[in-house]
Amino acid sequence: AVASADEIVAMDWLLLYGFNDFLWGWFMIILLLGTHIFLTIRTKFVQRKTFKAIKLSVTKDPDSDGDISPFQALATALASTIGTGNIIGVGTAIALGGPGAVLWCWLTGVFGIATKYSESLIGVKYRVKTSDGRMLGGAMYALERGFKFKTLGKILAILFALFALLASFGIGSGVQVNAISNIMNNTFDLGTVNLCGQDASVISIIVGVLVAAITAVVIFGGIKSISRVCELLVPFMAVFYVLGCLIILGMNFDVLGKTFEMIFQDAFSLKSVAGGFLGSSLMLAARYGIAGLFSNESGMGSAPIVASAAQTRNPVRQAMISSTGTFWDTVVVCLMTGLVLVSSIIKNPAIDVSDGGDLTYKAFQQIPVVGTPILVIGIAAFAYSTILGWSYYGERCVEYLFGRGGMIPYKLIFVFILLIGPVIKLDLVWTMADIFNALMSIPNLIAVVVLSPVVVKETNYYLYGNRLDEYDKTKIPVVNK
After folding, report:
1. Rounded to the nearest 10 degrees, how much is the dihedral formed by the CA atoms of 9, 11, 17, 23?
2. Is residue 180 within 8 Å of 214, Cβ to Cβ?
3. What is the pTM of this model?
4. Of 15, 98, 198, 375, which is most buried by a Cβ count within 10 Å?
5. What letter would DSSP give residue 134?
6. End-to-end C-alpha distance for the chain, whole angstroms
7. Cβ-Cβ contacts under 8 Å for 158 (sequence gap 6 or more)
8. CB 289 within 8 A of CB 101
9. Percentage of the chain modeled with pLDDT above 70
10. What is the pLDDT of residues 106-131, one digit of tens each?
11. Are the CB atoms for 337 and 245 separated by under 8 Å?
């Protein structure tokens, strides 16, 4: 019998989902975590300099080459990194991997600091300048300029830029605006209307129009406009969300001891997890906890794109600042979310933990009156900031691939996806976004491993040689874009 068109499409989707499961199974976990550990060793555990890096992040460097301040670069990178993964993603990891997933997520965040540092260092080291004075950098320029085998480097650079560009339409726009729409629909109900032959909620339409309009105003203003908004939005949203977490932890104070005990025991236990958790044993806890490293984007190569635009006197200085993004994202925010969820489940055994996406929502409902608004505003702010950060990443990839002529069409498509994102089913978009995120990581990880001798040399000279205040005299090449 000949398969019908619908059956062929269904088979294609199954293959796509299977490919995604393979990529984000043990393949990417081993690749990413292996790179994290390798670079931690190569950089002599650069994580121990995190608090020095935090101090540098609020230190301006106005006399250095660059388009935006070091903090603005960090805020823009954090905008794209601290997103719905920190809220919904952690809940999913706990639901599927058990409470031990929290510890594995935290540990991979600690090791991931070294990778974020290394990829940002080579991003700044090999950045270029346009004829009108703008800074361009990231994995594509490190691959093109840093590799001895130029043809291979150029091929990998094109692949990275292409996959990152495609990822920006998924994880950077459609997925995020859909997350805002979902949380608003769960909170408010204004009914539905018929739109192009299908029912669509009024809230979804309003969200699409508002987010698209506000985003268009910001991204058409360029990196200075994006970084200014992120500079204000990121500290606000992080403090606002963490405050909510602290309130819940205060309410659950009597079970915090048991919370830590359960997290540590389950992280290394070979037995099934207790209670209503779906996860069981060390293998599942490790898999879903380590998969949490996706939320901090260490190894993906996204953050170095904006780090390369920062005013910095040498590559190591900005690399240290960029590495704090992983610290704030995973070591602080994801840990806070994990503690909130596990302690809430222990204190309220009736909570259904099978739905990871709904887990955080139920935890925040413990806070009378203001709990739900805190979560709604938190998710909306996190998702919107991610949209801004990824719009810049996609724009730089378009410029690398097609020149400046491709930037306006890209922005128009990006805004259009924001407009329709809330009213379309995003199962396939989520899957494609995950695939492109994995595929862009591969050439970036090749870059940081191959160029690790450069990372070691620069780190030894500037960081361990106490020369962080020294200016790098290397001339930045000028390109026509």
Report:
1. -120
2. no
3. 0.90
4. 98
5. -
6. 54
7. 140, 401
8. yes
9. 88
10. 888 899 999 999 999 999 999 999 98
11. yes
